[in-house]
Structure formats: structure tokens, C-alpha cells
Design a protein that fits this description.
The chain is built from seven helices and no strands. 78% of the residues lie in helices and 0% in strands. The mean pLDDT is 92. The chain is elongated.
Length: 146
């Protein structure tokens, strides 16, 4: 099947909307962030949603372009480097988000609020860059591919 541009574009829009919601939370000082439980909870949920939607895009592109799903969330970012969607160094960097998503979603380990706060600040830079690469890739696809 071809890449479903509408599905990917919808995910891009949802990610961008949540990124706007994340901005004021990510810009809190660590002290302000730690003093506000509601800010911590909102940040965790927004990051979980952002990363989850990025994973949806990763899997969609990998399956439609290669016919094989990545073995795990971390690998899904690396597969996008193999498909020339993301630069390899950036794919390795942003793949760390998969581990954060798992910790937030499944509460595998105690979540360190300071690390979540730092991840939110990184997301303000990394997520727009990810979205730019995805959009550029979609723009390069031939019309019959998606």
C-alpha cells in the first residue's frame, strides 16, 4: 500500500497542536515545574501523546515503504534514517524518546520529574525538526506513492 499522506498529515497537525500546549510548561523553571503537580502531569501526558503520534508516523512509513514493521519503538526512528527520512545522527538522538514514552505510558520505573522537564525542553527543538523532516519527505514522494 502507498503512504497515506492524509494520515501522516493528520498526525503532524495533532503533534503540532500538542507542541503548542507543551511550550508554556517546558519554559517553566525547574523550581516552578516541581512546585506544580498539574504542570508535571500535563507535561507527561503531552509528551506521551507527542511521542506516540511520532511512533505512529514511523511505523506507517516503515511498513508502507519497506513492508516490515520495526521490531520496537526505538528502532522505528532508526528505520526512518535507513529510508532517508531522518538524518542518521538525528534519528539516533530522537530515538531516546521511545524510552521516555514507555516509562510514561507503562510506569516501568519511577519517573524523574527533572528528566521529564528536560525532555520537554528538548522536545521544543527536536519535535519541530522531526516534523520538518517528515514533511520534506512527504513532499519528495511521487504522487503515485502516497
Amino acid at each position: 500500500m502507498p503512504v497515506d499522506r492524509d494520515v501522516v498529515q493528520r498526525k503532524i497537525t495533532l503533534i503540532a497542536e500538542d507542541l503548542v500546549r507543551l511550550q508554556p510548561l517546558a519554559r517553566l523553571t525547574l523550581q516552578e515545574y516541581l512546585a506544580r503537580l498539574e504542570a508535571q502531569l500535563a507535561t507527561e501526558r503531552l509528551l506521551e501523546r507527542l511521542i506516540g503520534r511520532m511512533l505512529d508516523i514511523n511505523y506507517h512509513l516503515a511498513v508502507e515503504l519497506r513492508g516490515v514493521a520495526p521490531k520496537d519503538f526505538h528502532e522505528s526512528f532508526l528505520k526512518l534514517a535507513e529510508l532517508d527520512v531522518l538524518p542518521a545522527d538525528f534519528a539516533r538522538r530522537i530515538a531516546r524518546a521511545a524510552g521516555l514514552r514507555n516509562r510514561l505510558a507503562h510506569e516501568y520505573n519511577e519517573v524523574d520529574p527533572a528528566k521529564v522537564h528536560a525532555a520537554a525542553a528538548e522536545a521544543l527543538t527536536d519535535v519541530p525538526r522531526y516534523l520538518e523532516h517528515i514533511q520534506q519527505f512527504l513532499d519528495r514522494l511521487p504522487d503515485n506513492t502516497g
